Structure formats: structure tokens, C-alpha cells
Amino acid sequence: METPAINALAVETIGLTKRYPLTWKRKVLVALDHLDLQIRPGEVFGLLGPNGSGKSTTLKMLLGLVVPNEGVARIFGLPPDSLAARRRVGFLPENPYFYSFLNGDETLRFYGKLCGVTGTALEKRIEELIDLVGLQNGRERPLRSYSKGMLQRIGLAQALIHDPDLLFLDEPTAGVDPLGSAQIRDLILRLKKMGKTVVFSSHLLEQVQEVADRVAIFSLGKKILEGSLDLLLTESRDTQVQIPGELDSVRQEQVCRLLGQAGIDPAGVRFSRPRLSLEQLYLRTVQTQPGVSLRDSQPRP
Amino acid sequence: MITSLHRIMVIGRNTLTEAVRRKVLNVLLVFALALVASSVLVSQLATPDLDNAGLFDPQIKFVKDFGCGAIGLFGFAIALLSTAQLIPDELEKRTIYTILAKPVRRSEFLLGKFLGIVFLVVLAVALMSIAFSLSLYWQEVRAMAYADSIYDVGFSNFPEVVDKVHRYEAEEAQIQARGGDAAMQTQAIRALDEKYRREEAGGGAAKNSVEEETNWERSKDTVEAYDRDVRQIHDQIRDPQLIEAILLIFAKLIMSAGIALFISTFATSSIFTIVTTFLIYLIGHLESVARDVWLQRGAEVTIWQSGLLGLLSLLIPDMNSFTIVDEILAGNHVPWTHTFDLLGYAGVYLVVLLAVSIVIFDYREI
Amino acid sequence: MTGLPLRLRLRRALLVALILGLWAPAKIVWELRIARAQNQLRYQGVTLTRQLRDQLGQGLSIGVLSGMGNVVADLVWLEVTIAWENQEWFRMGGLINLCTALQPRFITYWDMGAWQLAWNASVAATKDLSLPNPLRREKASRFWINQGLAIYKRGIENNPESWRLWADTGLLYEQRLGDYRTAAYYYGEAAKRPNCLTFYERFPAIMYGLAGDDWNSYEAWKALWERLTPAQRAEPRHEGDRIEKEIRHFEQKLSIPTEKRVFPN
User: Fold this and answer.
1) What three-state secondary structure class fits B39?
2) In chain A, which residues touch B (CB < 8 A)?
3) Are C111 and B341 in contact (CB < 8 Å)?
4) Is the domain of B351 the same as that of B278?
């Protein structure tokens, strides 16, 4: 087992490749093509790309579930399939893959014991997590009766049961209502503040935008683009200025003239009204309603 | 090491919980219990009324055969069906991903799942054995009642007569235990016999001495024969060797589960696992024949046939050697050393199957 | 769809081959040892011959093949009872043979089977009015006795340590054939078997007496007396009194010289 360096990268892949031979077509499917990836500890990293682009293959290899054909992957400098690495990793699967005959408490107890958390420490942790994800109502009911949102919550709880340093979240907000999504997003930010690394994949690009520090975009097994959101999204050519209050056309002309004096071509200046995102409007509306608290979303019947 | 075993146990208990919470297995178990009980009823058809040594044999044997047969059959169904869907279920429902993302080795996962099945089979066999014991007890009660009915002919109070003869025999045994001079012993026994013969005649009722003697002799002979039959019933029903039989049946079940597990590590569907394991189970009963033919290399066997027979003999377990359970159920003696030998064979075979299963599963793409 | 790299596939195959390769010879050796032990217990199990398969039919054959041979034997035995009630003697004989073939180590199949033939079937033959004359009936009766005898003998071959089979064969010779000398032999063998009932030890001598063979009867009584320890002679079940009485009777009757007598006075 390699001794991890003091400032090891949370995730590192070098030339990671996975091929599947399709015997009936006599071709080879390259699920992942020489991926080089580096994720630093404490980052929130987003994996983006269409279905079949290699995101889930990457995730499986980083979890030690699949063996690469070429290349190397390391988690905190350790091989991903080693117990030491997996002790520091928590995983929230896409469709929650849990035993439906267990209830919430039993599920957390089961996974906790597998991670080596036992006794009163385990019980305490279960209480903390139930509280954190807001599952007090459903903890005694079997998972088969849970709604999608509740399954996501228990999924998060079991991913965190052993207090991992690195979290892999596969589509964490898929199928969750906006209130729940917001809570999950807040949780991710809170985890980041605790110094944890979060790697998540999502199709809800708006949400990724709100939380991630850096993203990578995959397509057809290759990583096409990688970088910090600031750098990638900023239209580097232009600058935005936010002015309080509404400007009528007269005042707009005045501003243009001022900008012209600063050496900016008034023809390229645009005026527009900043918009709320729909999510912000929704949350603002729903949260100001009496009787709805942040953690208390009732499970759907 | 301890943490590894702990993880295996956690998964094992979870597997058992899942199996018990599934209703299907409960139904199977109810069927099995009903079958064991009905064997007692069916055995009533087994023999006509005969007064003959071995009168109760076929009936009791029937109950034992049927009961153990049901335990074997239903135990096999439970073991096979639940093992066959262990891995396919986990793969289909993807629950395996969540578990293997945790610090759990694949081998621990596999062993844990199998341990759960072992728990399940132990539970099933234990419950069925209890039902079996009850059916045996019931059969004993019936047999005793029947014995009473055929021996008490001509006696107004048969239990009292039995009691009296037993007292006589107890005193006789005491005289013999005291030892000493043979002639004095004989005399003492004769005196005892005389005393009981007088008693037999009843308080004061004057009967001639010939009749006295006949009554007493008849009592002794009848009770002796009655005791013999009772002892035979007890020996057959309360046979400690039945524990050996149950253990051997259990070993066969666990081996079958092990084979199912091995097949399922590379099988694509649970149906394939079930059919293949069942076929191996059947072929296993012929393995000893194949082995003998292969080892003796008779002239009638071609090289291809010899190769096939050899392959069978080297890989397929000898299931037929466990049929020695029949011997135990027929009332013949099978020493514990032999049972341990068979159990050891099953145990080592199981370890081999588990080892190979772990190797194959370790590298399985999920 | 295995994307498993070649080196890992090879490693997997090698490990599997290694484990199985180590186990296979050990397995054969172990199995042979178990087979030897079972031979010593005189347990051969059932080999499903073609003949057996034909007699049983497919369903029951699979039953035998899946290790439930004893239940199959029990079911066939039910048929024996039914055949007896319907007086179908030949069918009954065939079924008895089937049962004993399926489970040769269960004494009662041989015992009751032979008894059914040598007594029940045989006696029924003497009353069978479909046969024209008494001689024919006697011949039929003899036929069934011989059938029963054959079964007893095969039973003894398979279960030589069973006192019941030896004793009941003796009974057949005594009661059905009137052959006291052969009966004496069989009773003697029975008495040597473990767990045999005590009174059988006296039967050889008694049989010789019934045969009118005083000399052999005397020898048998004498041999028995000498076999028993003084403590045993005192036990009621060995009937020491009676043995002494018989020996004295014969020593008198055969005029044995005093110095050779067991009981000179």
C-alpha cells in the first residue's frame, strides 16, 4: 500500500481507460478514453456530460468497482479498491440502491457497521444524520414506502455515516422538489466548509453552477473541457455593471456618453433588467408562506 | 481479521433478515410441516394387523423416511432457490454498488451472503426437525396403544400385571447383583418366584396350584414379549442416530447451496443456476459409478468416455455416499466416526467451492 | 461483455485451476476411503439398473436418483400390502423382490416378505380350489415355500449379522418343511448373532430331539452347558435347570459311561 503524500490530491487519474469488447459487432466500445483528472481536497467538482459520456464509468472506477484497462486512478494517493481509500469515500448512487425491506434506522445501522462504526458512536451518528437530512418522520418505515426525495435523504445519510473526506454524489437532486434541492445544495456547501471534497454529477446545470468550483465536461468517453467555473463561464470579452434602480432611455443615453468618455464604444453597450432565477423566485415565495419550515417537507403520500 | 469477520456477520444477518421477511419461504416451510405431519397418517395404510416381531417396523420406518425425505426435499428447495438469486438480485437492484463502495472486500460480501443462507437453512432444518420429532412422538403413542391392545387379551387389568412382573424382575436382578454362591442364588430366585405366584392367585381366592402356576407363567411370558415390543418401538423412535441423519441431510443441503453459489458467480440468470445445480445434484448420485468405471478403465470405455468420466469424478461431489442416511433410518448402526468423515468431506468440499467462487467473483465486472 | 484485462483473466483462470487441481486428487482419495468404510458396513446403496428403472417407471426412478430411494421402497411396500389383500401372489412376489432390491439392508422387507410367501401365499395355495386336485395344490404350496426360502437366503447374504433372518429361516424349515436338522443349523447360527433372544440357544438341541436324533441332541445340550459360565447357568433366562435335566435324561438314555458324564451322580 502506498503511503499517501501529505498534500495528496483527493482524486487523481492518469490516462484512465476502460474498454468493453462488443463481441457480436466485433468492435470495441471505449467507455473512457485516457482520462487525466485532478481534484484537490476541499473542492466541489462537477461532472457534466450526456448519458453514456463516461461519467458513470469514471465514478465506478474511482470507487474501485471496475478495473481499468489502462492508466491509474488514486484516491488520496491510494488505490481506489483498497479498504483504506474506501474508508474515506462516501457514495450516493443515482437511483438509491438500498435494501427496500429495511427501514431508515436499520439501513443506517447496517451501512454504519460495514464501515466500522459501532456501538454508541453509531447510534449517536444515526441521530445526527437523521436530524441533518430531516428524516425523523420516516425512520421507522421500510424504504420501499419512501418517496424519491426521502430516498435521496437516506442516501445522503448513509454516504456520510462514516464521516468520509470525499463524497461522490451521482445526480443528487434528480427527482427532488426545489425545496429539497435547495437543502441538498446548502448541505454540499456546508460540507465544503467542513473541508470535505465533493464530486457530483448532474444534468441540472443551473444547480451545478450554483455550487461547483470546477467542472469537467465529458462526451463520448473523452473529457472535453475542464476548469473553474469562473474561468469557463465568464465571457472574457465583456464586463457587466449592475446599477440600482430603473433607467429610462434618457438616463441610458447619459450613461452611454459617460462610458464613451472612458473610451468604451457606446454601440457595444447593452442595457437589460437583471432577472431572478426561477428557483430564487420559487424559494422566496414558498419560504415566506407561514407553516412551512426549511426542514419539514412532508413525504408525499 | 476480526473486523473482517464482523463485516461478514453483518452481511450474513442482513441476508437472513431479508430471506425471513420474504413471504415465499414461509409458505414452503408450512408445506413442509404439513407433509411431515401427514406422513403419520399415511403410515396407517402401511401395514395390516399382524402379530409378529417387526410389526411396527414398516410403519415407523415410513414415518422416518417420509419425514427425513421432506426435510431433504424442502430444505433443498429453500437452499437452492434462495442461493440462486443472491447475486442476481444484488446486481439487478444495484444494491451491490452501495455495499462495495464501502470498505468491504468482495470476498467478505460473498461469504456474508452465503453465511446468511447457512443461517436460513439451519433455521429451516431446525423447525422441520421439531415437526419431525412431533410426528415421531405421535407415532410412538399410536404404536404403544396398539401394543397394549394386542397384549392385554385375557387380562382384566394389564397395566397392573405389567407393573407386578417388573417388580419381580427388579427383585430378581437384586438377588443376582448380590452375587455369591450360584446354588443359593437359584434357591433365592425360586423362592421369589413362589412368592409372586401365590400373590397372582389373588387374596385368598382358592384356586388349584396348576392354575396358579399357569397364570403366573402366562403373565411373565406375556409381559416379556410386551416389553420386547415396547423396547423395539422405543429403540426405533428414540434413536440417537437420527441426529446423525439430520446432520448428514444438512451437510448435503449446504453442499448444494455451495454449488449454487459457485454457479451463480458466473451465471447470467438465476434460472440457469437453478437448473444447473439441480442437474449436478442428480449426476452427483451417479458419481460413484462414474468413478469406479473410470478408475478401472474397462476395455469397453473409449478414451473420450474415459475422459468425460474422469472429469465428472474429479469435480462432481459424491452425493450418493450421503444416502447412508437410509441405513440409519432402517435402524442399522452407523458409527459416528463415519458420519464425521462424511461431514468433513462436505466441509472441505464447501471450502473449495467458496474459494473458487471468491476468485471468480473478485474479478466479475459489475 | 467483459472488459477485464487479459492479465487478470489469466490470473483468475490460473487460480481456479490451482485450487481445483489441488482438491481433485484429494477428493478421489477421500471418496475411496468413504466407499471402503461403507463397504465394511455392508452398505452398497442402490444402483439404478435398467431392469429397476423399467419396473419403477420414470417418476420413481428420478426419486431414487435424487436420494429418496428409501421413500420409493416404502411406497412400493404399500403395494405389497394391497397385493396381499387382493391375494395377487405373483404380483406380491415381484413387488417384494423390488423392495428388497431397493433397500437390501432393511431386515423387515426380507423377513415379512418371505413370511408372506412361505406362509400366507403357501397356505392360500392349499385352499385354492381353481387347482383340480390336492396334489397340484400341494405342489403350488411348495412352490411358495421355496420362494420364501429363496428370499430368506438372499436376505441372509445381504445381512449376515441379522439374527431374525437366521431364526425365521429355521422356523420355516421347522414348521413348513418339517426339516428339523436344517432348522437346528439355522437356529444355531441365529443364536451366535448379536442381540439374539436367549431362548434360541436351546433350539438346536430341541430340534435334534424332535428329529429323533438323540446323540446330536445330547451333544448340543452338553455344548451349551459347557459354553455357559456358572453365573449364567444360575440366570433364569438361560434355564440352567432345564439344561441339566435334559443332559441327565440323555446320559441315562444313551448309557454314557460314568467318567464321561457331565453329571456323574
Assistant:
1) helix
2) 60, 63-67, 83-84, 86-87, 89-91, 93, 95, 97-99, 101-102, 110-111, 113-116, 158, 162, 168
3) no
4) yes
**Phi and psi angles of residue A39, each rounded to the nearest 5 degrees, phi first:** -125, 125
Same domain as B185, residue B122: no
Amino acid B210: pLDDT: 66
- How far apart CA B320 and CA B281 sit, in angstroms, is 10
> Chain centroid to CA C139: how far?
26
Q: Would the CB atoms of B48 and C81 count as touching at under 8 Å? A: yes
Around Cβ B218, how many Cβ atoms within 10 Å? 14
Q: Could you tell me if B354 lies within 8 Å of chain C, comparing CB atoms? A: no
Q: Does any domain span residue A295?
A: no
Beta bridge pairs of residue B86: none
Q: What is the pTM of this model?
A: 0.86
Distances (CA, A) of B313 to B262, B284, B321, B352, C227: 18, 9, 13, 16, 52
In DSSP terms, A228 is beta-bridged to: A214
Sequence-ordered list of residues with C-beta below 8 angstroms from that of C148, at least 6 positions apart, any chain: C113, C114, C115, C116, C117, C118, C119, C121, C122, C172, C176
pLDDT band with cut points at 50, 70 and 90 for residue A294: very low
Domain boundary among B226, B250, B279: B226
Q: Does residue A60 belong to any structural domain of this protein?
A: yes
Quick check: C12 and B360 CB within 8 A? yes
- The answer to whether A243 touches A269, Cβ cutoff 8 Å, is no
Chain A residues inside the 8 Å CB shell of C4: 67
Tell me which residues of chain A have a C-beta less than 8 Å from any C-beta of chain C: 18-23, 31, 66-67, 69
Domain extent, residue B109, equals 2-150+240-362
Residue tagged 472486500 (cell numbers): B105
Query: Same domain, yes or no, for B265 and B191?
Result: no
Which chain A residues contact residue B99 at CB under 8 A? 111, 114
CB of C123 within 8 A of CB of C137? no
CA distance B299 to B301: 5
pLDDT confidence tier of residue B43, bands split at 50, 70 and 90:
low
The CA angle C86-C88-C94, to the nearest 5 degrees, is 130
Average pLDDT over residues A35-40: 92
Q: Work out how many domains chain B is built from and give that number.
A: 2
The amino acid present at A252, given as its one-letter code, is Q
Q: Does pLDDT of A290 surpass 60?
A: no
Residue B51 pLDDT class (50, 70, 90 cuts): very low
Mean pLDDT over B21-42 rounds to: 74
Query: The C-alpha cell of B197 is what?
Result: 405366584
Q: What is the three-class DSSP state of B34?
A: helix
Name the minimum distance, in Å, from the CA of A143 to any CA of chain C: 32
Of the candidates B192, B226, B260, which is a domain's last residue?
B226
Provide the grid cell at B147: 401394543
Cell of C112: 415379512
Shared-domain flag, residues B143 and B26: yes
Which residues of chain A have a CB within 8 Å of the CB of B21? Answer: 101
| Residue A184 contacts residue A152 (beta carbons within 8 Å) | yes
Taking residue A275's Cβ as centre, other Cβ atoms within 10 Å add up to 8
Which residue among B96, B97, B103 places its CB closest to the CB of A86? B103
pLDDT digits (tens, 9 = 90+) for A97-125: 899 999 999 999 999 999 999 889 999 99
Helix (H, G, I), strand (E, B) or coil at A163: coil
Given a contact cutoff of 8 angstroms between Cβ atoms, the answer to whether A19 and A30 are in contact is yes
Which three cell numbers, joined as nine digits, stand for A257? 456618453
Q: Chain B: nearest CA to C135, how far in angstroms?
A: 30
| Of the candidates A57, A49, A53, A147, the residue with the CA atom closest to the CA atom of residue A96 | A147
- Candidates B345, B131, B338; CA nearest to B258 is B345
Question: Cβ B330–C78 below 8 Å, yes or no?
Answer: no
Is the pLDDT at B205 greater than 50, yes or no? no
Query: How far apart, in whole angstroms, are the C-alpha atoms of residue B330 and residue C162?
Result: 13
With beta carbons less than 8 A apart as the criterion, state whether B338 and B324 touch: yes
